[in-house]
Amino acid sequence: MTVNGTQVHSNEVDVEVQFPKLDDFKYNATLYSAFQAMWLSTLNAATNGGRCEFGCYITLDTATGQYAATTPFSGPIAGNNDGADIPYFKTFRPADIPQSPNPTDTAVYVVGFFHTHTPMTYVTRLPPYRPVGPSEGDEKLASYALGMGLPGLVYDYVGSASGLLDAGHELKADAMLYDIKELKRRVTP
Prior knowledge:
The protein is of the alpha+beta class. It has one domain (17-180). It has helices at 22-25, 29-45, 136-143; strands at residues 2-3, 6-7, 54-61, 66-69, 73-74, 108-116, 129-131, 152-157, 164-166, 175-180. Strand 3 (54-61) and strand 4 form a beta hairpin.
């Protein structure tokens, strides 16, 4: 580097990206607004004909310190007696921008993922209930799927005291944001 016409050298310094944890962005106002919009989309998509989940990735712009939600995507319409899913999460994690940042530059990193679970309002199958909160598949995805290593959040109903959501419930019953168990962190780029 040149300072006032003089070439200046410094010792090499190791730099490591420290990715945020769930608590760092869980209730970020910008993200929470996006989560609420996807929950509303989930409720609006629930009909006698089916239902689907909505989701997004969460990014951090290290130049501004701002979190953002990527463009929402949805899973396929599932029949009311079938399991709903978002296969998109099983295909890839979006690339960081730039993909290989210089340690002295800033970057936009993918630091988490979010999705909704669907209502059981129109479900008639047996058993007529499901557990609320993160599913086993969600926890495996957060830890192992294609090296994502991303912390995740899921918006789902509150359910009963035993942690179950009964079929036929009110569409606009109480819901909340749940942490998906964070077993493995993303590898530093």
